[in-house]
Amino acid sequence: MNKKFSWNLLSRYRGELYGLSIASIMIFHYFEDTSIYGAPHTLIQKLSYPYMHYISSLGVDIFLILSGLSLYYSMKKDPHIFHFYQKRLSRVIIPYLMIGTPFWIIRYFLRGSGTPMQFLKDLSTISFWESGNRQVWYISFIIMLYLIYPLVFQYLQKISFPVSCCAVMLTAFSILCCKTAFPSFYSNCEIALWRIIPFEIGVYLGVKSYNKETIPIIAVPVLALAGLFLRRAFLFHGFIFIDGRFMSTLYAFSLLLLGACICALFSNRLFHRILIWLGNNSLELYLTHVLIRGLCLTASIPTNNPAVYCLVLSTSLFISPWIHTAASQISARIVARA
To answer: CB of 243 within 8 A of CB of 195?
Structure first.
């Protein structure tokens, strides 16, 4: 094995890492439901405990690190800001509207309440920032990040490691100030606010990956063990620097490095093809399984039931590639006409 770990591995195996990320998120949502509504079987309860403690929602943090990294490649390929907004926003907004519009309509019929204004707030995701409706918080959050990214892109080549660390700590300090000054807003949106940090890490790693910079290979297991230590210290001893989500980001970063190494070492073609397929359809898989699950909960269908959740996932896996293909075609036409 090469004695150096290249940051470029994060880009080379980006598809596989996205696939691992979305798979972990879909599994997390099931165990989240069993922790809230109860595990129907003893075996599921035994599986739920270690998963919720050692994996939990870390897939989201990994997803955002990869998103930050990917944007650097996108801007280097075509630095035109208008083109960037066209491609990135249409990639998110079109599949969201294709899936989200029928979801919110059906949900309002199922609930039998709500106003047209509330419907528009939910569909536009404004309700997340206003009242903490987390149904599709990720969509609202990633759109905000896409809008901001081109404004900082030109400065990335000049950012050193100490400066990036200062930026992360400044973000954390700002979030804590927000918690004190605007507790209601923080309570509604903390799930997104702390996720700015993994995105920042990804933005910094985008430069490292693009330039094919390296670190000693021994640093990978050291970082992984450090992440595991922080996770255990937080979970079992109440040891915490700033916030649980901040600690989770550090742990997610270490798992991301391990995932890249595993992808590099494990050459099974089927393994890579499955993960790449999941990664290519990751946004659609996220939207479909989250929203179908949301409809089930609205209709009082128990998603902690493994049969029900398997049906949710099967439906998501079946329709996601169709939505991805249709959304990609619409997006390509929009970009071509501009």
So the answer is: no
List the structure tokens of 75: 């801007």
Report the number of secondary-structure helices (H) and strands (E) in the chain: 16, 2
In whole angstroms, give the CA distance from residue 264 to residue 177: 41
The CA distances from residue 34 to 14, 24, 300, in Å, are 31, 15, 14
Using CB atoms within 10 Å of the CB of residue 11, give its burial: 0 to 12 exposed, 13 to 18 middle, 19+ buried.
buried
Mean pLDDT in residue range 210-226: 85
Residue 233 and residue 249: Cα distance in Å, rounded? 14
Residue 225 DSSP class: H
- The partner residues of 215 in beta bridges, in order of sequence, read 5
pLDDT for residue 251: 86
For the stretch 190-213, pLDDT in tens is 999 999 999 999 999 999 999 999
Rounded Cα–Cα distance for residues 129 and 203 (Å) = 24
Q: What is the pTM of this model?
A: 0.93
Per-residue pLDDT band at 237 (split at 50, 70, 90)? low
What's the pLDDT tens digit per position in 60-69? 999 999 999 9
Question: Is residue 173 exposed (0-12), middle (13-18) or buried (19+ Cβ within 10 Å)?
Answer: exposed
State residue 152's pLDDT score. 86
Residues 6+ apart with CB under 8 A from 170: none
**Quick one: CA torsion of 217, 243, 37, 60, rounded to 10 degrees?**
-40
Task: State the Cα–Cα distance between residues 144 and 249, nearest whole angstrom.
Answer: 20
User: Which residues lie across from 6 on neighbouring strands?
Assistant: 214
End-to-end CA distance of the chain: 47
Q: What is the per-residue pLDDT for 333?
A: 86
